[in-house]
């Protein structure tokens, strides 16, 4: 987990709007979300509680979780999910299982290309998107 801790800024996005469509995000939200710069702050408390804070011009959303323990998540688009985050083979794996009929299962895998570059792979059905994040100091 330690390698993922810190502040990250989106620097490149490929096919993200198609991914958002695959997970049933509305057209307006897709257009906005696929064009704004997002920031992620990943922290871990002394009791191993983890936090993923996602920030953009329009919204801030924070996930609080324990690795390997399923938790309820409401996505920025309002979908209810049952989410589990694990670290496997130096990859951050986030499985989102739909908890309402309008949601779609999804998987996000984060891995470091190098200590200052994180690649996130978003998968829903047969749609795959990639987002590249650069480590930064706020």
Automatic annotation (TrEMBL):
Listed CDD domains: FABP (cd00742)
Keywords: Lipid-binding, Transport
Record keyword Transmembrane present: no
Keyword Transport part of the UniProt annotation: yes
GO molecular function: lipid binding
Domain Cytosolic fatty-acid binding proteins, first and last residues per copy: 6-23
Domain of life: Eukaryota
Similarity comment: Belongs to the calycin superfamily. Fatty-acid binding protein (FABP) family.
Name this polypeptide is given: Fatty acid-binding protein homolog 5-like
Organism, as annotated: Octopus sinensis (East Asian common octopus)
């Amino acid at each position: 987990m330690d390698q993922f801790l810190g502040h990250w800024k989106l620097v490149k996005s490929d096919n993200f709007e198609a991914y958002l469509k695959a997970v049933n995000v509305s057209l307006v939200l897709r257009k906005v979300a696929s064009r704004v710069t997002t920031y992620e702050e990943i922290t871990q408390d002394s009791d191993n509680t983890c936090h993923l804070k996602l920030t953009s011009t329009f919204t801030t959303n924070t996930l609080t979780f324990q690795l390997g323990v399923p938790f309820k998540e409401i996505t920025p688009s309002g979908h209810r999910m049952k989410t589990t985050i694990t670290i496997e083979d130096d990859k951050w794996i986030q499985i989102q299982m739909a908890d309402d009929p309008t949601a779609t299962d999804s998987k996000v895998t984060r891995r470091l290309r190098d200590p200052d570059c994180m690649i996130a792979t978003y998968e829903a059905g047969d749609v795959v998107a990639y987002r590249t994040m650069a480590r930064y100091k706020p």
